[in-house]
Amino acid sequence: MRIGIFHARSREYTVALALLTAVFVLSILLFPERAFQSSLGGLTIWWNIVFPSMLPFLMLSEMMAGFGAVRGFGTLMEPLMRLAFRIPGLGGWAIALGAVTGMPAGAEAAGKLRRENLVSREEGERILALSHVASPFFVLTVIGAGFLHNVETGAAIAVIHYVSAIATGLLLRGVRFGSAPVPLSLPPESAKPKAREARKPILLRALSDMHHARLEDGRTFGKLLGDSVSGAIQTLMMIGGIMIVFSVLLGVMDTFGIARLLAEAASRAAPSLSAPLETIRSGLSGLFELHIGTNRLSQIPAANSVTAALIGAALAWSGLAVHLQVKTAIRQTDLRYRFFLLSRIVHAGLSFVLTLLSWRPITDLFQRSEPSFLSDTASATAYSGGLTFWWAWTAIPQRIVELGLVLAIAVVLSLIVSRVLRPSKTV
Prior knowledge:
Elements: E1 2-3, E2 6-7, H1 11-30, H2 32-67, H3 69-85, H4 90-101, H5 105-115, H6 121-130, H7 136-147, H8 151-171, H9 188-197, H10 202-217, H11 221-256, H12 258-269, H13 276-288, H14 290-297, H15 304-317, H16 319-329, H17 337-368, H18 372-380, H19 389-394, H20 396-421
Helix pairs in contact: 1-2, 2-11, 3-4, 3-10, 3-20, 4-5, 4-6, 4-20, 5-6, 6-17, 7-8, 8-15, 8-17, 11-16, 12-13, 13-14, 14-15, 15-17
């Protein structure tokens, strides 16, 4: 970030951060009860939703990488990923993990791929943007059944969210920033067999790459299990801390009446605006924290399509709290945050516009023919007062099946692409 002399390495930036921190601490001292209630709300969301939703999948990702399965899936998905998004097949695992687990699991996977030098910087940035989506569990259950009390509405938001994410990836597949691309330097021993094995069937190459990756990792099952647990817990603690800080920040902003001041200014500029205070308050929440923001946006007095469009834009933007989590996930890499920021802006704009344009036909389709997963989710979600920690754990087997289904579909499509694009033999 560089705007004139005000950039991340400038003294002015340091002074601004120090002043913001001082104001934040002072506000907590002046309003301890409000700060405590806000932090408790953030902690509840983290414990009931984020922790049980992400812990098993973060552990699974580390263990599958250690066993070489991620490298094998990468080889299988190489044709499809290269054709669609100009990324290596390994990016398919990050995209599938992010799609099922939710943000910022995709960022963790993308950062790990780049730290291990398995993808180039530009490939890692595209993987980071593509894998950053909300999980179906969050959209269908928390937003649809919980906040909106309508699973069909949550399903429509989910469809538009994933379609606009794919459209964002296609739009940004050729975007490059000013600096020259950083090349990928693979170890010589892993690069040699690729030329010899290029003529082998893709399934045999996938098994071979999986075996080589497991031998390169070299960790025993016990060591791998311990590393997966400790790494997942450390990541989740970081996520929880950031969520609590932003929850307190939103509470402090409400106490100081910042939303009320902005609402008064908005009502003077646009007198026809209905419920400006609640709209501004919900918009600020969505800008800073995803869970609180989507909850407040679901309560504003507006048409269903407008409410869904605002929620869809907030999901695509994902909140500054999640942005900090992403920056933490890629902190030991050269992946650039500005490409991720661009992808969030494009995704939010596409999601908002597509929701307004396609809301009526999508909702009519769901009302005429309800998919089976909606009835399952609706029956499983007797949402009375909020999700519980144990209920979220009971949904894990179904989500593991969803991950396997996403991977299977991607592999089948990749095999079809590989078959269609296979060069013909010349005599």
